[in-house]
Write a structure and sequence with these properties.
This protein is mainly beta. The protein has one helix at residues 15-32, and strands at residues 44-52, 55-66, 69-76, 81-89, 94-102, 106-115, 121-130, 133-142.
Amino acid sequence: MRALGVGSGIRGGAAAPLLAALFTALLAGCASVGTSAPVQPVEGPWDGFLVVEGQEIVATLRIRQDGPDLVVFLEAPAVTLSARGEGRLDGSGRARAELLYDVECPGIARLSGRFTPDGRLFSGEFRASDCTGRTEGTFSFRR
């Protein structure tokens, strides 16, 4: 077996720079493996609704963002719902958040959804549970 540069058409010291360039490209590629895509900006107010047991409930979502980390505030005055929690956004626009609330008793709501690539719509599903039981539904918020 011939070593690269010996009888392979690469003359003299030309093999060393070529190998250096190949290894640099390889290492650069390996360095990016496992890193996530940048997250889109989603901070600010969002208006929309929750759908629970077939009923549409007008709601407002406010998001504070620090990179992929989110602090989420949810308000739905018609059902006296005020919730706050934390979440995470990935580079593909998917987000998850857990919000604590206290309507009749303390509870937790889990939001799981996706932001559209243009950053104007956030929609998905939620599940909530407290002393009154469990419920699930969907949500949609726009800005």
